[in-house]
Amino acid sequence: MRPDASPTHPTASHLSKIYTRDATGLRKEAGPFDIFIYNVNNQNIALGVIFLFGGLASYPGGSFALTVLIATLLVIPIYVVYSRLSADMPRSGGDYVWVSRIMGRKAGPLLGFTVAATWIMSAFVSIGAPMAFMAQFGIAPFLRELGSATGSLALSHAGDWVYSNNGTIIVGGLFLIAFTIVMLVGVRTYMTLQRYAFFLACIGLVIGLLCLVFTGHTSFAASFDAYVKSLGGVDGAFALAEKAGGPTAGHAFSAKATYYASIWSLYMVLFGATSCYIGGEVRQPARTQRLGMFGSLIFTAIGLLLLIIALLHVGGEAFFMGLGSAKLGLAYAPTYNELIYALFAPSVVGALVMGVTFFFWTYVWMPINYFTATRLLLALSLDGYLPRSLSKVNSRFGTPHIAILICGLFGLLSLYLFVTGVISTVTLVFACAVMFVITGIAAVLYPFTMRRTWEASGAKRFLGVPTIAFWGALQTVFSLIVLDIFWADPVAGISLSSSNIILNVGAPILAFVVAALVIAIRRSGGTDLGLATAEIPVE
């Protein structure tokens, strides 16, 4: 029963079926450090550097260090709202649960399902793409580093094959199957593996940062030249890259270029509150979610800033602007991790340390999107929108095994679609930002439509205004700015592609239409799904 409602729901009498949601059966396995790592992984410092520097040449005059600060400021209201509502309603499904309850019996089911379905579609896309990143930014460079260290062209060529479309699909698919098994085994298993992987990943990040800080420009250039040559590339590779980037480097500061370049920093920090979707599996949610979300944002922002400054210090703007387009005689341009390894080369130990530690940054978006999709599927199933089988939780491992297997199949499909260019890195990000607008509006309404729940959580006010409403309004406004960046960016904006427009505009509309159909069908059978919004579900 909704905390603000009377014991007898006024509309239940004419229905043949009364809604009662079951407990999820999930276990509270995650503590503060687990949630901190979880959210750091979903922002991802290492991949952030790759994407930021990959786009450097497209924004002459843009300040990438400043984009990190802009992006961080824009997402703070999201983190405030999500950490607060995760504490007040710590349930599997996160913002789906909040929106569907806050918006009331008429709008709640429609908007809640729209939010959930949009995030599920985005998660399906984002299960496969990280497997491509793992193959192309993790395994392929690692093999080239080993090839350089041992003088084996066979290993270097193996790395080139893994980077190819066929290699990426095969290797990424095999690892996706392996990770699906880990997801089936349970949250505790994943959280344990996550801690060890995060520790190793951070060691590599610190080593890389220290190497950059204590390396001069001349030494970096010489190391890069030697590494490219060891792979069978051209002589004087650094100078060639610098020359290629010359025309776009050295421009005066441009506020417009910086504004649009923020798309890549936003892509990193926008989703650091994703732990809300496993809210029912978090211990002491008020403290844990607050520390995990804001700790991860601060950690990621500082890490990105330090690496951006350090890389530009040793390489210079012209080098990085030309690295992707310069003809170096290689199958693909050296990645961030290879630039660090080059400072050790030739060294088998250096290749192992940098290759293995960087690997643990490349795949981590995948399991988090598993959690997001499966917990939303579970919540929708328990609320009566989807078949009951999707909410079945394995009694031994405490995992929604059927939902996980479905996610694995969609992950394999999205891996293929990503590698073949049908979907892109930013596919459905715009649609997700629209969901932040909806959640922001819900936060504004929360103290008024669920007054008792809000009061039970402390009912904080500032100058007489509920603080959650203030932050919700700010989230709504800032999310509109984010939407403008992702829509209008002249390099990667969705307005540049008709298919991206169809996907990002069509996905929420499709979700809304499906919600209306499901609600109508269930009502015709005597079940009012609006009654799901009459209670905060048990866990």
From TrEMBL:
Location in or out of the cell: Cell membrane
Which GO cellular component does the record give, naming just one? plasma membrane
Keywords on record: Cell membrane, Membrane, Transmembrane, Transmembrane helix
Q: Does the keyword Transport apply?
A: no
A molecular function annotated in GO for this UniProt entry is: transmembrane transporter activity
Membrane topology value: Multi-pass membrane protein
The UniProt record lists the keyword Transmembrane helix: yes
Q: The organism sits in which domain of life?
A: Bacteria
Regions that span the bilayer: 36-57, 63-82, 110-143, 163-184, 196-215, 257-279, 291-312, 340-362, 398-419, 425-448, 468-488, 500-521
Q: What is this protein called?
A: APC family permease
